[in-house]
């Protein structure tokens, strides 16, 4: 997980990276955000995940996309985050893997 602090107009906004879990609602996305930290007593790495509701004004992201979100004012009862950008789309990843498998299988048929 990547966490950055942006300073603009004396406000501190936190951005996070997560995966779109659900895109069924209009202008709302469910994002799964993973975080890991060192346990204070046992000194082991602990992984936790949370699902955040994000406001997506233009319905740009789809299920399976990796997105960057940023804290914002409350939009509704549970929506406190805005979509900043789509980092990698699910379809683009599929196309790249298809091309890579074609190259590998095509070069083996000499």
- State the CATH architecture: Beta Barrel
The CATH topology comes to OB fold (Dihydrolipoamide Acetyltransferase, E2P)
Q: Name the CATH superfamily classification.
A: Nucleic acid-binding proteins
Strand percent estimate: over 45%
Q: In whole angstroms, how far apart are the ends? A: 43 Å
The gross shape turns out to be flat
Order of helices and strands: EEEEEEH
According to CATH, what is the class? Mainly Beta
Describe this structure in words.
With 110 residues, the protein is an alpha+beta fold. It has a single domain, classed as Nucleic acid-binding proteins (OB fold (Dihydrolipoamide Acetyltransferase, E2P)), CATH 2.40.50. Helix content is 16%, strand content 50%. It has a five-stranded mixed beta barrel. Strand 3 and strand 4 form a beta hairpin.
């Amino acid at each position: 997980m990547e966490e950055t602090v942006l300073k603009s107009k004396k406000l501190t906004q936190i951005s996070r990276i997560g995966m779109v879990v659900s895109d069924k609602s209009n202008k709302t996305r469910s994002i799964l955000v993973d975080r890991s930290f060192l346990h204070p007593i046992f000194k082991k790495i602990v992984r936790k995940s949370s699902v955040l509701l994000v406001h997506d004004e233009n319905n740009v992201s789809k299920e399976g996309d990796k997105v960057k979100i940023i804290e914002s004012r409350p939009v509704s009862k549970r929506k406190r985050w805005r979509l900043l950008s789509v980092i990698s789309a699910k379809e683009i990843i599929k196309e790249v893997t298809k091309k890579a498998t074609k190259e590998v299988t095509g070069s083996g048929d000499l």
